[in-house]
Every structure is written in structure tokens, then in C-alpha cells.
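C-alpha cells in:
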């Protein structure tokens, strides 16, 4: 896929049919590609729209473009899936964000539960990096929506959000029998997937989660904390016809 550029929606002037790229996008076009007025590029605004443009002016700070045409992107799934991920240690969350973006997740929300090894530390600063990872993954994979990566929640704060979904799937290794995933997501427009950190969930957490979601098993094998959310997301996208 040809390189695409992210444009902040605030820098689109619909009445004048123009948009302005800035920051790293402008620097890449001006310094690396040495773009010239008259050249054509594709931009997207992260909310679902893409634009075919003709460059008008170029500087290291800004690249202004005339919008030739715009259309809604065709790469977005018709089911909105949020991943609630037990906060993992190391750089595993970065991996989850990147791959979940490629697979079509709309929102990624880490949370802290009892057995999380990681502890809250400079979360606002780390969130800026996480959002950049989601942006770059969206650009690479051809998506026109950038998933929202949110600041971590507590376990109870996470549970409070689950009733808002058409289907909430609580992945729990101690769940002996699991309802058919196809039946659970049938007709659902919004789906939440909840997976644990390296230590999983304690019994009291599992009981509280079962009251507001559907516990499911991911099979006879224990999946790593970075594998479980992606495997479940892949299954949901496949069964809903989005993969």
C-alpha cells in the first residue's frame, strides 16, 4: 500500500477544500521525500475519512494540499470491538496495541487487577507513545480510524463500563464450558473482550466479572497475556465476517 499521511481533523477546511499536514508528516514529505507542489498524496483523518490531495505548498513545518476527492474508508469492520487488557509487564502492551490495531479493534483500555505484575508509573507519558503506536499501525495497515488507547482503569472501573456493550466476553482459564462464541456475538454491534495480565484473575474478581459479562474459555491451552486478547479479537472478527 502506498504511504498515507495523517491529518488532524482540525486542520481540514471543508469550505476551501484544503488540508494542512504538520509535525512528522510534513517533515517526512519535505525532508525525506522532497515533495513538490503538484504531487498527489493520500491523507486520512483518523475518524474514517480519506482524502486524495494535490500538494500546494511545502515547508518543513507544514504541507498544504488541495482536496481533490474524499470518501469514507472501506477497511473498517462493521463491529466495534474494545479490548480491556490486564496491564502486562515489559513492552507487551505495545505489541498488543500494534496487532489489535491491525486486526480492527476500535478501542484499547488497560486495567490493573490484583495479580498485575506491572504498577502504575508515568502513565500519561506512556500513553502518548501508545497512541503513536496505534497511529503508525493504522497507517501501515490501511485503516482510516485510529483506535483510542486510553489511560489505565482499576478493575472495578473497567467492570462499570461492561453493561454498555452488546456483548462482553470475559476470558477466564478456569471456565470449564464456554458458550458458542458465534452465538454470543450474533447481532452485536459492540463487543468488549476482557483478558488478564500474567497472573490472571483471582476468584473474587472472576465472580464480579461474571455478573456483568459472559465468561468464556479459550480452549485447553493456557495463552500468554499478550496472546489471549489477540486470539479472541481474531476469532470475533472472523466469526463476524470482518477477517
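Residues out:
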Amino acid at each position: 500500500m502506498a504511504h498515507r499521511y495523517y491529518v488532524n481533523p482540525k486542520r481540514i477546511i471543508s469550505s476551501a477544500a484544503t488540508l494542512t499536514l504538520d509535525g512528522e508528516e510534513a517533515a517526512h514529505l519535505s525532508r525525506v521525500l522532497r515533495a513538490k507542489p503538484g504531487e498527489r498524496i493520500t491523507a486520512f483523518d483518523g475518524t474514517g475519512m480519506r482524502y486524495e490531495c494535490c500538494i500546494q505548498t511545502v515547508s518543513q513545518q507544514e504541507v498544504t494540499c488541495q482536496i481533490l476527492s474524499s470518501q469514507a474508508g472501506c477497511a473498517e469492520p462493521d463491529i466495534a470491538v474494545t479490548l480491556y487488557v490486564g496491564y502486562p509487564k515489559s513492552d507487551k502492551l505495545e505489541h498488543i496495541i500494534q496487532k489489535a490495531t491491525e486486526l480492527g479493534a476500535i478501542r484499547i483500555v488497560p486495567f490493573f487487577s490484583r495479580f498485575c505484575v506491572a504498577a502504575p508509573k508515568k502513565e500519561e507519558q506512556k500513553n502518548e507513545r501508545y497512541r503513536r503506536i496505534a497511529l503508525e499501525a493504522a497507517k501501515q495497515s490501511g485503516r482510516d480510524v485510529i483506535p483510542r488507547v486510553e489511560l489505565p482503569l482499576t478493575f472495578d472501573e473497567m467492570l462499570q463500563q461492561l453493561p454498555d456493550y452488546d456483548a462482553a466476553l470475559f476470558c477466564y482459564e478456569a471456565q470449564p464450558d464456554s458458550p458458542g462464541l458465534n452465538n454470543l456475538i450474533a447481532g452485536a454491534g459492540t463487543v468488549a473482550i476482557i483478558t488478564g495480565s500474567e497472573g490472571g484473575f483471582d476468584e473474587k474478581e472472576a465472580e464480579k466479572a461474571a455478573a456483568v459479562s459472559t465468561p468464556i474459555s479459550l480452549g485447553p491451552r493456557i495463552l500468554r497475556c499478550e496472546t489471549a486478547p489477540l486470539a479472541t479479537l481474531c476469532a470475533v472478527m472472523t466469526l463476524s465476517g470482518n477477517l
